[in-house]
Amino acid sequence: MAAPWWRHCRRWSTVCMNMSSYETVWHFNGRSVSSSAFLLGQVSWSSRPGNERQPPASPAQRNQRMSSFTSSITRNKAQILGPTLQSCWCRTIHSDAKHKDPFTLAQRDLKSLYDDIKKELFVSRQELKFLCDYYFDGKGKAIRPMIVVLMARALNIHSNRDGDLLPGQRAIAMISEMIHTASLVHDDVIDGSDRRRGKRTINEVWGEKKAILAGDFILSAASMALARIGNNMVVKVLCQVLEDLVRGEFMQLGSKENENERFKHYLEKTFKKTASLIANSCKAVSILVNSDPEVHEIAYQYGKNVGIAFQLVDDVLDFTSVASQLGKPAAADLKLGLATGPVLFACQQFPELHAMIMRRFSCNGDVDQAWQYVLQSDGVQQTNYLAQHYCQEAIRQISMLRPSPERDALIRLTEMVLTRDR
Amino acid sequence: MVIRRRLFLLAFPWSAIRGTRGLFSNSAPSNWTKVVSDAEKIVGYPTSFMSLRCLLSDELSNVALHVRKLVGTQHPLLNTARGFVYDSRNNLQMRGLVVLLLSKAAGPSHTASELLAHDMHPQVLSGFLSHRVDLKEWTVSDGPLKDMQLGNKMAVLSGDFLLANACSALAQLNNTKVVELISSAIGDLVQGIYYENLSNTENRRTNGIDVASWEEQMFLSHGALLAKSCQAAMELAKHNKEMQMLAYKYGKHLSLSHKVSLSDLLTKHHLPQNLRNLGHLADIHSLFSLLNKAKTSRNQLDYSKLLAAVKSEKGVSSAVDLCCYHSNKALEAIQAFPSSEARSALENIASTITKF
């Protein structure tokens, strides 16, 4: 057990060297979590330049620390991944009475979410209206608005107010779902996907051009709603999301030859494509109620870490979930030529994957072969661990807020992110 | 300007490869060119349609790299990209110029509107040029299938990229009212393009549409952005609601007049689309036969022949009337502005459109 861990950890640490300090790696789970930055929690994205690098620990220190690292990971694995891994959302809800269930708690604020969105999408042409409303059918998980309203309430209470949402905060919950949906519509065009949330995609039914226009329209409606909030900082924060989404999509088109760079590239892409929206929406609701930049940063960091964890789990589900559960075909990422976390980890055990990654699984049999390698490796497990680390950092961040049922629900949510199966 | 243009050629090599020449480059400098260059002198510098920042960004050069692969294929994105270069003198640039002139005519402090005209406005438009591209289902006969699909991806992504950039530029203006105005203009554009597609497929073979719905459609797809940008420029300079409305009207009627005008018909390289638009007003079949008549032996259009032929058509006179009507409306709106060099430039622009 220890030997392979050694290997992975060493590889990991080289990855982390680029982004965070050595020191933080060894403290990540247990002893001095609060005093040192967390494993990848401090990865600086484009917004924060210049990481401090600390000199690597001596080999002796490293060995000593390694053992505690290894044991804590194993322990952690048993705790978090063990019994609940395969359970569905609803089962985990009742497993821990201490923390409120996020879904129940957010429900009152999300009741009219989809109706409100449809009202924003004001179009005279019937067909375009139908296309724009297509995905706002209440069948999505609406996980982004849920995080946003819980965060807003937690922050309101933290700021000595009652929890009730400000109108602007409610709008941001709505806007986050609209931006997400618009990006899905365009992604489906780019990827040529034919199914989404158990439905045929817009591009599949109405063609690519109409799908692009529908996406554009949803976005324009979202940005009008955003402008009406009337806060310039909020506008800037959410415009950053739009830039990140496109940049993330561009990053997805390229692949890196170097293995460490490739992992960094993957995490950065994951941030831009998924986490940026959640992080910046959380930041936006904090701006509306609190003027303290430190509070904004807590909200942002929670969203960022949960967002990355969410996507990592999504990438795992692409390998472990059956098609019917996910609402889209399995191994979809491989078929698109994308090397996600599980593949990148598997590549450490099966170097044969390297060539396949570089040719984006384009040769006959590549997808099947890569799929086999991933399942034979512990790539899935390792990606899950990584997701756990991000969740723990999210918990560390959100715990700095004053206690409230909503804050606890956000903590609970990180666990549900890890254990979801669809 | 020259440098920017060179940069652009660097980024978009096909324009040099294909060597398609714009109309203005081979016809004698028209009234229009003079009006525009006079107006540019008032604003102080040539209005290039794409900011340097945008051209130099990694992502766009990334697009250029990918799009290079498309050279030699039939992907419509190439035409669009070529359009970036050639439309620039006529459309995108003209619009930016109008916004600048308006803020100058309305009074002092137009730095913010410069940002609006230079950074945001062109990007929104070019973004939509990409999204306007006819993405079609490619078959093997169109060339290497992978390249064509790549072209589709690039069209979507570069459009999204330019729009996202435009939004960021908008956010920098620190005025949420302006953000709302431009966002709603984007919504109008989308509806207009959508509408245009539908009517192209549904109504093309029937007798066309009436003037009112043609105007509505043209306003959405061409006028709304200019009208709302003009209004936004007034808002940025803190002018009152009344001035805002006048600027809006000027922009609206100018773009409608421009849309009906024959100058627009002849300065665009994708001519059939314009003929079709006009054709709704005139008789579409005779227009297409005109188009055929005006073709030279080498199967290229002789524009002077076409212009003469189009002018002599009966149905076209109603288009000319409509053009004058909107041009006058635009002139009317601008009269409320204090007399200045910038105002006369705006008057020149509006009246030159009707000089065929």
What does this structure look like?
- The complex is a heterodimer of chains A (422) and B (356).
- Chain A is mainly α.
- In chain A, 69% of the residues lie in helices and 1% in strands.
- Chain A has a single domain (98-419), classed as Farnesyl Diphosphate Synthase (Orthogonal Bundle), CATH 1.10.600.
- In chain A, helix 11 (208-229) packs antiparallel against helix 12 (232-253), helix 13 packs across helix 14 and helix 17 runs antiparallel to helix 18 (352-358).
- Chain B is built from 18 helices and no strands.
- Chain B has helices at 2-11, 14-18, 23-26, 31-43, 52-56, 58-68, 76-106, 111-132, 145-171, 176-202, 211-236, 241-260, 262-267, 271-279, 284-293, 303-312, 314-334, 341-352.
- At the A-B interface, helix 9, helix 11 and helix 12 of A face helix 6, helix 9 and helix 10 of B.
The percentage helix of chain A is: 55-70%
Number of strands of chain B: 0
Q: List the uncertain runs of chain B.
A: 1-29, 45-59, 81-90, 133-143, 202-208, 266-274, 279-285
Question: What distance separates the N and C termini of chain B?
Answer: 28 Å
In short:
The complex is a heterodimer of chains A (422) and B (356). Chain A is mostly helical and 422 residues long.
Key attributes of the depicted protein:
heterodimer; A: 422 residues; two-stranded antiparallel sheet; disordered N terminus; B: 356 residues; mainly alpha; Farnesyl Diphosphate Synthase
SSE layout and pairing:
The complex is a heterodimer of chains A (422) and B (356).
Chain A (H helix, E strand, L loop, with lengths): L1 H16 L4 H5 L32 H23 L7 H5 L8 H9 L2 H8 L5 H8 L9 H16 L8 H25 L3 E2 L2 E2 L1 H5 L1 H22 L2 H22 L5 H31 L3 H28 L2 H4 L5 H4 L5 H9 L2 H7 L7 H11 L2 H20 L6 H15 L3
Antiparallel strand pairs in A: 1-2
Helix pairs in contact in A: 5-8, 6-9, 7-11, 8-9, 8-13, 8-21, 9-11, 9-13, 11-12, 12-13, 13-14, 14-20, 14-21, 17-18, 17-19, 17-20, 20-21
Chain B lengths: L1 H10 L2 H5 L4 H4 L4 H13 L8 H5 L1 H11 L7 H31 L4 H22 L12 H27 L4 H27 L8 H26 L4 H20 L1 H6 L3 H9 L4 H10 L9 H10 L1 H21 L6 H12 L4
Helix pairs in contact in B: 4-7, 4-18, 6-9, 7-8, 7-11, 7-18, 8-9, 8-11, 10-11, 11-12, 12-17, 14-15, 15-16, 17-18
